[in-house]
Amino acid sequence: MAAPYLRLRNISKRYGRTTVVDGVDLDAAPSRFVCVLGPSGCGKTTLLRLIAGFETADGGTIHQNGRDVTVLPPEARDYGIVFQSYALFPNRTVAANIGFGLEATGVAKATRASRVSELLTLVGLTEHAAKYPNQISGGQQQRVALARALALSPGLLLLDEPLSALDANVRAHLRTELQSLQRRIGVTALMVTHDREEAFSVADQVVIMNEGRIEQTGSPEDVYQHPVNLFVARLLGGCNALPVDVIGDTMAVAQGLKLQTAGVTINGIARSHACIRPGAVLVGQEADGTPNCFTARVAAITFLGDIVRLLLQPGDSPQAVIEAEVLRSRLNRIPQPGETLSFALPPRQLMFLGGA
Amino acid sequence: MRRVWSARLTRQTLTPLAAVLLALATILPISALLVRSLFSRDGAFAGFDNFVRYATEPGLAIAAWNSITLSGLATVLTILIAYPLAYGLNRSCMPLNGLFRAIVMLPLLAPSLLPAIGLIYLFGTQGVLKSWLMGEELYGSIGIIMGSVLYALPHAVLILSAGLAARDARLYEAARALRAGPWRQFFAITLPFSRYSIISAASVVFVLVFTDFGIPTVVGGSTNVLATDIYKLVIGRFDFELGAVVGVLLLTPAVAAYVVDVLARRAQRTTLSGKSVPVTPHPSAFRDSALTAFAVLVSLAVVGVIGMAVFGSLVKFWPYNLSIDFKNYARVFGGGDDGRSLVTSLWLASLTALLGSFFVALTGWLVARKVGAAIPTQLVQGLAMLPVAVPGLVLGLGYIFFFNAPANPLNPLFGTLALMVVCTIAHFYTVPHLMVVGTLMRTDPEIDLAARALQSTPAGTARRIHLPMLLPTMIDVFGYFFVNAMTTVSALIFLFTANSRVGAIAVVNLLEGSRYGQAAALAVLIMLISVVATTLQIVLRAFILGRQPWRRKTG
């Protein structure tokens, strides 16, 4: 792997007695798209502001492209930023917003104009160049903010929840656009978000943060398939977590259910819960005859369109509740509450995790 | 790298510098006055001896009592008149709404002396309506109260209007759905919700009246109040120590009223949510005609008193020869003065407006956009908020103690127009500072971060982004400084010299010499200049807004 373009070592930030960022190490390879994902208040925005130089770290170092930028003011760093609110200049046209950085750094007028029109083409806003921010749509404003951030050809693009103010359709569309644009320019990008779908769809590398610390780093598939603990598993999707009573190499007992496992390595980490994604639970005929098959009473049904969510109470374990999500097309008919069904927890889909 | 250093310099030095300048113009002179009240003439620490001397000297303490009772009474009367008026202007379908508004605001554009002069022509010894007082004398309590109510009315109407205009229509819809009639709605919703603006208006009016110098000087007769006593003690008896004591007595209730006002405004803000729907009044024959009749009555009183002053300025020889001529106006520009006081006023007002606008834009920007570090920024904000709680007389006297002290290197400023400009800027600082802060706070703070990330210096961001946003407000700020500097008397009465006497003070001097016609003429001229300035302000503001297409939704 190439030397990281952005390298954080042991970065910490405190406000009074609360530690908001706590000893964070992070490497972003050149031209990669890194997503910092975490719940609100986990310190991800503070981390971004530290990289942007809006805050100064209390400890640790930040290197960008080999240069120590830890204590530099924002003006002396090399990045473009897109805010959640876009923070467009309301008194400037779309073109003048994009050209602001060029103007502030004293780029000659002719050079400025050609660079602005290049960026307008890049984000597809040429025909809106003369409009003011309050005269264009939210999605268009977001593109202006992006073009403005790229105007000075920065080495690093920072994105602070850039899509969360948009409605769902526009968001999905812009997500793809953002990713392909980043690929095309080859700029290293770091995006902060609380939306896992957003992180998964654009990122090469996902960084999961909780309470100021990094819990896990990896590719989207990797962190989803192999979460290191319960927090990560739950953050990345629905998750049944059954407290484990007994655990061995090939079998476990969780809330009274005897489970075959695909082999668990016990390397000193407390594996307190048996976990499985609701979509991995097999139901009805598909479950019959497979390992870890039990019968359960259907406690509740939620119809979600193509997917049906079932709340199951296993007969063997009255206190356990299993959530299963099944494609409607895979069911002969939709079961009714109170009915008895068989379900199975495939051993290869079981994760044994510890933590909160 | 040059940009990085310039940005760093701005962030680190500008806010502390502004704090130092503000301190020189506000807290240091006020402290000088507080200190002086505790020292004897020979400079020895005297504890509260001066206060004891004030309380025991016959005839002095009565002024404090007069000030409190008269201001209290004038405040109650002002609110009783202003509330129905503001209600009519904002909550009824009254015809000629704009005209009534303009008339009620008229006293803002004239020195407080002008209504007092009008009262003399109406109810004075030779007044046309003297019989209305039923044998009572205008000079004294009656004159002070009548003049004060007229002078304070526009301030009260403005504050109450703001409270009445910003209400939630959904509350009234809910009340109607619950079958509440109009009176029930008024007592259950309107009145309780305007209680904070009533408290706020009352505290502002009380301080205005309590600390006004012009009205009691002209129509106070032998009724002493603190505002006239401080002048007599300092200028008549050169008793600076007792002057300082009266200054403290003027300052204390003013500060208390200010605290009440701040608390009331804070409470007011929480009663209105962001989702409120504005109230649109529906016509109601009885309510609308009753409120219109009331507005006509009040407008007649305002126009009558001010019109009488204008009439008096045009009359040949009151009350014996009522033919009209411009002799009094000719006298303003002839004789010993040659209109110099008016020219000085224009200089004072223009310089105050220019420099004041500049500094207010600077401190408002430093505070609203948090350019510097937190502590100096809070200091600037605190110092900028201070003057609103300090009566002009107290500030002016503080300026004597501070700038006239032999040890002060700024001593040569004393007696110059420059110091009068500084004092006037300081005196009226708070309102325009808050106007700038309010305007600049309305935009997202992330805009500044975005500009920083694009390598713009604070000065560059201010010029390219903040200034265009601020421009219409700056016109209002300029107008506010200009009109107030034209009409103010209180802070300058201690600072002027023969060469730097402004028009409003010349009016006081003319009245002291019983030259009513000429005084009226000069006061009317001041009012006319203010009217022209305000008209220009309105036109210019509209022009600038027209040139800023980005404020419109479609373009």
Describe this protein's structure.
The complex is a heterodimer of chains A (356) and B (555). Chain A is an alpha+beta fold and 356 residues long. Chain A is built from 9 helices and 20 strands. In chain A, the strands form 4 sheets. A 6-stranded mixed sheet of chain A has the order 6-7-8-3-9-10, sandwiched between helices. Chain A has a 5-stranded antiparallel sheet with strand order 13-12-11-14-20, with no helix packed on it. In chain A, helix 6 (168-185) links the parallel strand 7 and strand 8. Chain A is elongated and about 75 Å long. Chain A starts with 5 loop residues before the first strand and ends with a strand. The model of chain A has no long low-confidence stretch (mean pLDDT 91). Chain B is mainly alpha-helical. Chain B folds into 2 domains: 1-36 and 326-549, MetI-like fold; 59-325, MetI-like (MetI-like fold). Chain B is built from 24 helices and 2 strands. Chain B has helices spanning 2-25, 27-36, 49-56, 61-91, 97-105, 113-123, 141-165, 169-177, 182-193, 195-211, 214-219, 226-236, 240-270, 285-314, 327-333, 340-368, 374-385, 392-403, 417-427, 430-441, 446-453, 458-487, 503-512, 516-546, and strands at 315-317, 321-324. Chain B has a two-stranded antiparallel ribbon. In chain B, a hairpin with a 3-residue loop joins strand 1 (315-317) and strand 2. Chain B is globular and about 75 Å long. The two termini of chain B are 39 Å apart. The A-B interface holds A 52, 54, 73-76, 79-81, 83, 85, 87-93, 100-101, 103-105, 131-135, 145, 148-149, 151-152 and B 1, 3-4, 7-8, 443-444, 446-447, 449-457, 460, 464-465, 468-469, 548-551, 553-555.
Please give the structural blueprint.
The complex is a heterodimer of chains A (356) and B (555).
Chain A: E1 6-15, E2 18-28, E3 33-37, H1 44-52, E4 59-64, E5 67-68, E6 80-82, H2 94-98, H3 100-104, H4 109-122, H5 138-150, E7 156-160, H6 168-185, E8 188-193, H7 196-202, E9 205-210, E10 213-218, H8 220-225, H9 230-235, E11 240-247, E12 251-254, E13 257-260, E14 273-276, E15 282-283, E16 293-303, E17 307-314, E18 322-327, E19 340-344, E20 351-353
Parallel strand pairs in A: 3-8, 3-9, 6-7, 7-8
Antiparallel strand pairs in A: 1-2, 1-4, 4-5, 9-10, 11-12, 11-14, 12-13, 14-20, 15-19, 16-17, 16-19, 17-18
Chain B: H1 2-25, H2 27-36, H3 49-56, H4 61-91, H5 97-105, H6 113-123, H7 141-165, H8 169-177, H9 182-193, H10 195-211, H11 214-219, H12 226-236, H13 240-270, H14 285-314, E1 315-317, E2 321-324, H15 327-333, H16 340-368, H17 374-385, H18 392-403, H19 417-427, H20 430-441, H21 446-453, H22 458-487, H23 503-512, H24 516-546
Antiparallel strand pairs in B: 1-2
Helix pairs in contact in B: 1-17, 2-18, 3-13, 4-7, 4-10, 4-14, 6-7, 6-14, 6-24, 7-10, 10-13, 12-13, 13-18, 14-24, 15-24, 16-17, 16-19, 16-20, 16-22, 16-23, 20-22, 22-24, 23-24
